[in-house]
Amino acid sequence: MYKDIFESIRNEAEKRNLRERTIQLYCSDVSYFLRWIGKNVSDLTLEDAESFLTTKHLEGRLVLCQDLVQVKMRFSPF
Questions:
Q1: From CA 41, how far away is CA 37, in angstroms rounded?
Q2: What pLDDT, on the 0 to 100 scale, is given for residue 10?
Q3: Does the reported pTM lie above 0.90?
Q4: CA 12 to chain centre
Q5: How confident is the model at residue 7 (pLDDT cuts 50, 70, 90)?
Q6: Which one in 30, 33, 37, 57 has a CA-CA gap of 20 to 30 Å to 43?
Q7: DSSP at 59
């Protein structure tokens, strides 16, 4: 369903010579977000990402790290 997104992430990560495990983690994180948000990719907004990060932080499941968020957003195909 989201094959194009994961191919885009993989292509960009490989250009940056990231390790396979790092690429897998990026894809896993994006997959988790897409399942959680439950929207079509074309309908996603920055507010959706902020809502996800805030909710997970408040649940104690995510330690917000601005640098990490910025790095992951660079791979965002939307």
A1: 10
A2: 93
A3: no
A4: 13
A5: very high
A6: 57
A7: T
Identify whether the C-beta of residue 38 lies closer than 8 Å to the C-beta of residue 29.
Answer: no
**Three-state SS annotation for 5-34:** HHHHHHHHHHHCCCCHHHHHHHHHHHHHHH
Give the other-Cβ count within 10 Å of 58's Cβ.
9
2-31 b/e (C-beta count within 10 Å ≥ 16 → b): eeebbebbbebbeeeebeeeebeebbeebe
Work out the mean pLDDT of the chain and round it to a whole number.
81
- Give the chain's length: 78
Those residues with Cβ within 8 angstroms of residue 49's Cβ, 6 or more apart along the chain or in another chain = 33, 73
**What pLDDT score was predicted for residue 42?**
86
